[in-house]
Amino acid sequence: MKITHSGYKTGAATLLAAMLALALTGCAKHTAPSQNDPVNKEVDDLFANLGDPKTPAPGKEKLHYMTQVQAEIQRHLKDAATYSGQRCTLRITLAPDGLPIGVRTEGGDPALCRAAMKAVTDARLPKPPTPEIHNAFQIITLEFRPQ
Questions:
Q1: Contact indicator for 61, 130 with CB cutoff of 8 Å
Q2: DSSP-derived secondary structure letter, 147
Q3: Which residues are the signal sequence here (predicted)?
């Protein structure tokens, strides 16, 4: 079998041998990094928990908590379909136990905002799993846009 490329005709065996020689030559001069290298140790420490299923990624934990909060509020938003096409932005301040201690309208349709504020106050929001998660979500801005 012959391979034609850019006008040159080369046998497949010759091409394969040349590629193998180049690959081996490139590997011959490569040295493995030392395991005692401080830079490698720092990188290893950064990625140490990635494979540990018991340690959730910080972003994943935050996303999970925010999803729980949104689902609980949506569950209490009555007749959402009647507000289709409207929007409302609320600023919610959470206590460390997840209790909303402040809800303020930032703008939007007044009727939807009243319904959204009632949904927030009626909801039993979950307690943040860690103080770091509470700090990240101590003040939440949510935009309601029923479809």
A1: yes
A2: -
A3: 1-23
Question: What pLDDT score was predicted for residue 9?
Answer: 46
**Residues in CB range of 58: below 8 A, 6 or more apart:** 132
Q: In what order do the strands lie in the sheet with 100-108?
A: 100-108, 88-94, 139-144
Q: 88-94 and 139-144: which strand pairing? A: antiparallel
Instruction: Tell me the mean pLDDT per 10 residues along the chain, length 147.
Output: 38 49 50 56 51 58 94 93 95 96 96 96 95 94 93
Residue type, 3: I
Q: What's the CATH class of domain 58-144? A: alpha beta
Report domain extents, the chain: 58-144
